[in-house]
């Protein structure tokens, strides 16, 4: 887990490349904050369900 104890702010993370990056960061142990124009709570919940730590910021 190369990113353990790191926090990443990922913009445009509700779908596409941004979400794929968020998935990869979570897999590497990072805590992620998903920032998007619209609410990304469902995406943050999905990342948490996969064992990661994530929240949504708008």
What does this protein structure show overall?
By secondary structure, the chain is of the alpha/beta class. It contains two helices and three strands, in the order βαβαβ. A three-stranded parallel sheet has the order 1-2-3, covered by helices on one side. β2 (31-35), α2 and β3 form a beta-alpha-beta unit. The longest helix is centred in the middle third of the chain and has 12 residues, at 16-27. It is globular, with a radius of gyration of 10 Å.
Helices and strands, with pairings:
Blueprint: E1 7-11, H1 16-27, E2 31-35, H2 41-49, E3 53-57
Pfam family, one: adh_short
Protein name: SDR family NAD(P)-dependent oxidoreductase
InterPro entries: NAD(P)-bd_dom_sf, SDR_fam
Main attributes?
single chain; 58 residues; alpha/beta; 3-stranded parallel β-sheet; 2 helices; 36% helix; 26% strand; oxidoreductase; SDR family NAD(P)-dependent oxidoreductase; SDR_fam
**Global geometry:** globular
End-to-end gap? 28 Å
Average predicted local confidence, pLDDT = 92
Largest sheet: 3 strands, parallel
Helix content: 25-40%
Report Rg. Answer: 10 Å
Q: Strand order, biggest sheet?
A: 1-2-3
Keywords: Oxidoreductase
Protein name: SDR family NAD(P)-dependent oxidoreductase
Family: Belongs to the short-chain dehydrogenases/reductases (SDR) family.
InterPro entries: NAD(P)-bd_dom_sf, SDR_fam
């Amino acid at each position: 887990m190369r990113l353990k104890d790191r926090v990443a702010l990922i913009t445009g993370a509700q779908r596409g490349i941004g979400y794929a990056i968020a998935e990869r960061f979570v897999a590497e142990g990072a805590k992620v904050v998903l920032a998007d124009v619209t609410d990304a709570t469902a995406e943050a919940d999905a990342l948490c369900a996969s064992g990661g730590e994530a929240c949504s910021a708008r």
